[in-house]
């Protein structure tokens, strides 16, 4: 049976909206991690068969197939093509899936899976051009009515369904910052980060935050539990992984770091929008033959605090093993790059701790989710 291995995984530091990376062109962000991936793995870049890059807001600095633009901006061989994909927040996790599927199918042997997003330069929502209408037409209205559909309302609906109060969310957010600060200070991320523009560490984690400070923030709407403190940060970043077949590992003298064990993707209620990680995880575990207790580390994107809280409650996964070094509430969420960022963190954390299995999942716009199980080798 064919195997697909992660042989390299690298990311930029995740920058804040007003931080050190805000003026770095998105193509140059992507180019930075692509060049670093080639350098770290020692692979012949001309042997790469495709570059699959996730990016959500594909306008302005992120338009015209940024996967191709970033590869060429890195000075890498012209014979290598690139394609840009959008599965909303899960875009670069999906790029990993597509790369792995190409290798597992036997049609390709070396594929780069990457992601990029500069949310300071290309704001969230920029791809919805003014005066062109919403992306939902008559068929959507017939099915779901004219109710508000947004990630913010979805997060609030989750609070109401699972009974989460603001204090629950803030306690989770505070722990995310605490874990992130600890990991940064201990140097846990140093091996996986390719410094850029003088930035060597993630910018978003706050050592000085507190429950008292969070309690002083205004809710997004009257009567809601959701505040900015319990949501992921607007961020800037890029990530890249090299996926290789067993034959490519031998031919190019590469070192496997993790085996792609199981892939799953599913749809869920698009109004709740953020609940997909629950069925995606269940689907991945069923396909893998593993139990939730077999997993050593979970990376669950903290789009909003109720997402991992509800996911943990429904799947039975331990929150102690979930986002052990903090999540997007503390470290940021550069949309199209985040899937690759989380997988890079997962690979390195398994190596650091000696764990065997890791599971990554994240909620995605439209009510979707990917789940990926890897095995350290």
UniProtKB/TrEMBL annotation:
Keywords from the named record: Acyltransferase, Transferase
Molecular function in Gene Ontology: acetyl-CoA C-acetyltransferase activity
InterPro entries the record matches: Thiolase, Thiolase-like, Thiolase_C, Thiolase_CS, Thiolase_N
The protein's name in its UniProt record: Acetyl-CoA C-acetyltransferase
Lineage per the UniProt record: Bacteria, Bacillati, Actinomycetota, Actinomycetes, Streptosporangiales
DNA damage listed as a keyword: no
The keyword Transferase is annotated on this UniProt entry: yes
Pfam family, one: Thiolase_C
Signal peptide positions (record): none
Family according to the record: Belongs to the thiolase-like superfamily. Thiolase family.
Domain Thiolase C-terminal: 255-376
E.C. number(s) listed in UniProt: 2.3.1.9
UniProt cross-references to SUPFAM superfamilies, sorted A to Z: Thiolase-like
Residue span(s) of domain Thiolase N-terminal: 5-247
């Amino acid at each position: 049976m064919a195997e697909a291995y992660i042989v390299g995984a690298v990311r930029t530091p995740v920058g804040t909206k007003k931080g050190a990376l805000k003026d770095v062109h998105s193509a140059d962000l992507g180019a930075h991690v692509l060049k670093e991936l080639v350098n770290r793995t020692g692979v012949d870049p001309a042997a790469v068969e495709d570059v699959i890059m996730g990016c959500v807001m594909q306008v302005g600095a992120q338009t015209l197939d940024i996967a191709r633009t970033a590869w060429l901006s890195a000075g890498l061989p012209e014979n290598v093509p690139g394609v840009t994909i959008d599965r909303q927040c899960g875009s670069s996790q999906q790029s990993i899936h597509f790369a792995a599927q190409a290798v597992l199918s036997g049609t390709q042997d070396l594929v780069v899976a990457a992601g990029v997003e500069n949310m300071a330069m290309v704001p969230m929502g920029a791809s919805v051009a003014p005066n062109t209408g919403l992306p939902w037409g008559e068929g959507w209205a017939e099915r779901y009515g004219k109710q508000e559909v947004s990630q913010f309302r979805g997060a609030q609906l989750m609070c109401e369904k699972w009974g989460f109060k603001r204090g629950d969310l803030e306690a989770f957010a505070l722990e995310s910052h605490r874990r992130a600060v600890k990991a940064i200070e201990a140097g846990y991320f140093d091996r996986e980060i390719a410094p850029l523009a003088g930035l060597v560490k993630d910018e978003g984690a706050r050592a000085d935050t507190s429950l008292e400070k969070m309690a002083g923030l205004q809710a997004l709407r009257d009567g809601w539990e959701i505040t900015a403190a319990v949501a992921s940060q607007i961020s800037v970043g890029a990530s890249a992984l090299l996926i290789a077949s067993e034959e490519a590992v031998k031919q190019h003298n590469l070192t496997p770091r993790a085996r792609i064990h199981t892939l799953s993707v599913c749809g869920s209620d698009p109004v709740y929008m953020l609940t997909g990680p629950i069925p995606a995880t269940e689907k991945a575990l069923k396909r893998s033959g593993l139990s939730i207790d077999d997993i050593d580390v979970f990376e669950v994107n903290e789009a909003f605090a109720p997402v991992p809280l509800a996911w943990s409650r429904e799947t039975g996964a331990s929150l102690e093993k979930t986002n052990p070094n903090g999540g997007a509430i503390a470290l940021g969420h550069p949309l199209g790059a985040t899937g690759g960022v989380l997988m890079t963190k997962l690979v390195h954390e398994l190596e650091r701790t000696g764990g065997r299995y890791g599971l990554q999942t994240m909620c995605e716009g439209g009510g979707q989710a990917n789940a990926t199980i890897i095995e350290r080798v």
